[in-house]
Amino acid sequence: MAANAGSAAAGGEVKEDPERLRFQTELEFVQCLANPHYLNFLAQQGYLKEPEFINYLSYLQYWRQQEYAKFIKYPQCLHFLGLLQSEFFRRELAYAQCAKFIEEQQLQHWHLYNKKRSQFQQKILAKGKPVPVDK
């Protein structure tokens, strides 16, 4: 991937670096996979039955590598990217109830995570140690 976003052309126009554009596009798409309703949409539109699209999902597995995963803001998308390799999972996503169930499980996970995190921070404060700050 090139270091700069683009270079100035003769007419003062900025040319987008194709490698950077591809990186950004694939990153955005992979992160969209964290949304169960988007997954449901893909299934209902028939994308998850197309061999070319399934191959594309397989290709995107490189995002699981540390050098790429560090750019991901929604890590659950990597979990769904892995699940999308399963024909059963792709088939079940066509049902709205499946997407709703996944969404409910995500919300419960986040709620539990925040609750445990808050309890951990309170214990640290009670001991007089500094609380780690999120970046």
UniProtKB/TrEMBL annotation:
GO terms for cellular component: mediator complex. Signal peptide: none annotated. GO terms for biological process: regulation of DNA-templated transcription. GO terms for molecular function: transcription coregulator activity. It is found in: Nucleus. InterPro entries: Med31_sf, Mediator_Med31. Keywords: Activator, Nucleus, Transcription, Transcription regulation. The keyword Cell membrane does not apply. It comes from the Eukaryota. Belongs to the Mediator complex subunit 31 family. Component of the Mediator complex. Component of the Mediator complex, a coactivator involved in the regulated transcription of nearly all RNA polymerase II-dependent genes. Mediator functions as a bridge to convey information from gene-specific regulatory proteins to the basal RNA polymerase II transcription machinery. Mediator is recruited to promoters by direct interactions with regulatory proteins and serves as a scaffold for the assembly of a functional preinitiation complex with RNA polymerase II and the general transcription factors. PANTHER family: MEDIATOR OF RNA POLYMERASE II TRANSCRIPTION SUBUNIT 31 (PTHR13186). This is Mediator of RNA polymerase II transcription subunit 31.
